[in-house]
Specification:
47% of the residues lie in helices and 18% in strands. The protein is of the alpha+beta class. The protein is globular. It starts with a helix and ends with a strand.
């Protein structure tokens, strides 16, 4: 509730910081819904709305989320995807006998006539989530990693061993390794790591080369 008090009193930066802490320890849809209303970066706002939609089990509580996402998609001229969000909002409100908002009517008129909505946007939801990594973990320092070996783990999956500047080993799936413009595997990285001293987990990874 502290996060909501900050937001209500106009202390936006403190509200975002409080919500970020909550997001790291609990996966409740309302956190991402509230965060989306505070975010100014369109990619992060879209990701937060998508996260909330994926987490919210009560479909009757997703109407505002669908409208917010539709608005962002219209600005990107992704009209079939936006139409899908508007359709879901309309279906929820019609099913419950609720009044369709003026905002919905305005957004619907922004979609070109004859636009066919996609069947669903779940793939878009998943693809949008990557924008949350930098937001969630931006307070963590970046650490240098060097790729040393790739190997098959006990389950037969390809894994990679990287080491920090002070020689600590970090492991991650080889599929997360990057390649350069020539298709050559990158060996030097900058990464943000959760619990670097105990069961380290790489949460963001980018090339240092």
């Amino acid at each position: 509730y502290l996060a909501r008090l900050y937001a209500a009193s106009g202390r936006k930066a403190k509200a975002v910081k409080a919500y970020k802490k909550l997001a790291l320890i609990t996966g409740q849809a309302y956190i991402w819904s509230d965060l989306a209303a505070l975010m100014t970066d369109p990619a992060q706002r879209q990701a937060a709305l998508c996260k909330a939609l994926l987490l919210q089990r009560d479909m009757n509580k997703t109407g505002r989320l669908h409208l917010g996402l539709a608005q962002l998609l219209i600005k990107q001229e992704r009209f079939p995807e936006a139409a899908c969000e508007l359709r879901q909002y309309r279906d929820i409100y019609t099913r419950n006998g609720w009044h369709l908002s003026d905002f919905y009517q305005c957004l619907r008129q922004s979609v070109p006539a004859g636009t066919q909505p996609v069947r669903d946007n779940r793939a878009l939801y998943q693809a949008s989530l990557a924008a949350l990594d930098d937001f969630l973990y931006s307070d963590l320092p970046e650490m240098s990693l060097m790729l040393t070996t790739e190997f098959k783990d006990r389950r037969g999956n390809m894994s990679a061993r990287l080491v920090t500047d002070d020689g600590k080993a970090v492991f991650l799936p080889a599929s997360r390794l990057l390649t350069d413009a020539r298709g050559v595997c990158v060996r030097h990285y900058l990464a943000r790591i959760v619990n670097p001293d105990d069961h380290p987990k790489v949460v963001t990874l980018r090339s240092k080369e």
